[in-house]
Specification:
By secondary structure, this protein is an alpha/beta fold. It has 3 domains: 76 residues; 177 residues, no CATH class; 181 residues, TPP-binding domain (Rossmann fold, 3-Layer(aba) Sandwich). Helices cover 58% and strands 7% of the residues. β2, α14 and β3 form a beta-alpha-beta unit. The N and C termini lie far apart (71 Å). The structure holds NADP nicotinamide-adenine-dinucleotide phosphate. NADP nicotinamide-adenine-dinucleotide phosphate binds next to α12 and β5.
């Protein structure tokens, strides 16, 4: 039986690796999802066959509790709440790792060797700090707690002291060996506290990056658990999770022009309240969708720039309908995809795939940017920061240095949004006042529907 289990584990690990590989491309991402799900199902089935398992009652109870939390989470939380959902999933995964480690200590603590104790303590530290950190991230994203960074004097010293004290207790426990429930429980409490202290000073703006870092911690914790339980699949899956989480965090920081260490150590990401005298006297041109529809009559090339507002309005289906209508009139339509458009990497890709927009129409930032000067109309659907030229021109702007879509180089820019409000970064966008820009104010779905009706009747 053990041989069969190990064989299934190898198949499962291969599926996890394929899943990551396939998920890195839009065309194969659905297979990636299936491969990951199949790998996990195989891993669970093989583990259930292990001879060490004497009864299934508690496992069944765990499955029922897990499914009754996970199913409504997957079905009821909207796409715009994906970051929160991910934070909650990490919290539960990390809690599981922490609990398994604690159970192992309370059951076999006195029999564990020094290396086993080190591994167990690191697993528990990472698991529990990820649990509270992810819960806090969820609270901030869901705006249950204030999204601004919560800063207090000497916060770095407090956090570092808590961390150093947990490491000291771990060293003491490992050197002393044997069973010390009070000492171990203190390490658990300090880990829980450290997770809170780690995320408290980080602003809501950086939360998706923080979630990705916490994902890496949860992965590492699972990998350590694999060493402890002598489970090779857990080691591999945890290492894949840990490394991919870290790579994603670094990429997100690059795409948002954030310093990785700043995000890691907190105190950044606050929405900056920039005094904005620049708006005074500037002219904003706006048209109704019906008036704007005439502009498409002379257009040959259109680029759609989707952003968070498209997700919020659930306007992806009507965007697709509009694309079809324009293409029927021999207008070339492409979609410009910024790496951090929306609120999670890949947010726009997922929504547009849901609306059956063909993958080959989605063009990454580096490839689409040189095409903007020859684009007749750029239709910006609920995007803001990712188009803001201040990122290129204004060294004083919090967005300065962030790579953007060079929408300002197109011949005509139509912005669909509800008001003159700022985007996620909380700063004004000079592009709204450009002579080339026309604002179409309103909810994205409603404006696009009206535009569609008008173009059809022209
Ligand atoms: P954005 O800068 O937040 O702008 C979105 C715009 O959509 C807003 O200005 C809003 O203006 C408009 N909007 C909201 N609801 C709407 C509706 N129902 N109909 C029409 N418009 C609506 O979004 P973005 O351009 O996609 O840029 C993403 C931002 O998120 C960046 O700052 C990025 O750094 C940040 N971020 C992204 C990630 C990621 O991984 N993707 C992670 C963390 C942070 P109105 O209120 O006037 O309508």
């Amino acid at each position: 039986m053990e041989n069969i289990i190990q064989f299934v584990y190898i198949a499962s690990a291969s599926l996890f690796i394929l899943s990551l590989k396939w998920m890195s491309e839009i065309k194969t991402s659905r297979w990636g999802n299936w491969a990951g799900t199949a790998g996990m199902a195989l891993a669970i089935l093989a583990t259930l066959l292990k001879p060490e398992i004497h009864g299934y009652l508690w496992i069944a109870i765990g499955i029922v509790i897990g499914a009754s939390i996970g199913t409504p989470m997957a079905m009821l939380m909207p796409m715009t709440a994906v970051p929160q959902r991910t934070a909650l999933s990490h919290a539960f995964g990390a809690l599981a790792a922490g609990i398994v480690g604690s159970a192992e200590y309370f059951l076999h603590g006195s029999n564990l060797s020094m290396p086993q104790l080190i591994v167990l303590c690191i697993e528990v530290l990472l698991g529990f700090l990820t649990f509270t950190g992810s819960l806090l991230a969820f609270g901030k994203l869901q705006e249950i707690i204030p999204t601004r960074p919560i800063l207090y004097p000497g916060r770095n010293l407090v956090s570092l002291s808590v961390f150093a004290f947990s490491l000291f207790l771990i060293a003491y426990l490992v050197i002393k060996g044997g069973s010390h429930p009070f000492l171990f429980s203190s390490i658990v409490c300090l880990s829980l506290l450290f997770g809170i202290l780690l995320v408290l000073p980080i602003g809501g703006a950086d939360m998706p990056t923080v979630i990705s870092i916490l994902n890496a911690y949860a992965g590492l914790s699972s990998s350590f658990m694999g060493f402890l339980l002598n489970n090779k699949l857990l080691i591999i899956a945890g290492a894949l999770d840990g490394s991919s989480g870290l790579i994603l965090s670094i990429q997100m920081c690059k795409a948002m022009n954030r310093s990785f260490t700043n995000v890691l150590f907190g105190g950044v990401g606050q929405v900056l309240e920039v005094a904005d005298p620049s708006r005074d006297g500037k002219i904003v041109k706006s048209l109704s969708p019906k008036e704007a529809s005439i502009l498409f009559e002379a257009a040959k090339k259109v680029v759609v720039v989707p952003g968070y507002g498209m997700a919020a309005a659930q306007a992806q289906h009507v965007v697709k309908e509009l694309t079809d209508v324009l293409e029927n009139r021999n207008i070339e339509v492409k979609f410009a995809i910024h790496p951090v458009a929306g609120r999670m990497p890949g947010h726009m890709n997922v929504l547009l795939a849901e609306a059956d927009v063909p993958y080959d129409k989605l063009v990454e930032m580096e490839e689409i940017n040189p095409l903007f000067p020859e684009t007749d109309i750029v239709l910006v659907v609920g995007a803001n920061d990712i188009t803001n030229p201040a990122a290129r021109k204004n060294p004083g702007s919090p967005l300065y240095g962030m790579p953007i879509l060079d929408v300002d180089k197109a011949k005509q820019i139509l912005f669909i949004k509800r008001s003159m409000s700022t985007g996620f970064a909380g700063i004004d966008n000079d592009l709204f006042y450009s002579p080339k820009t026309i604002m179409l104010f309103g909810d994205a779905k409603k404006v696009l529907n009206e535009l569609l009706i008008s173009i059809n009747s022209n």
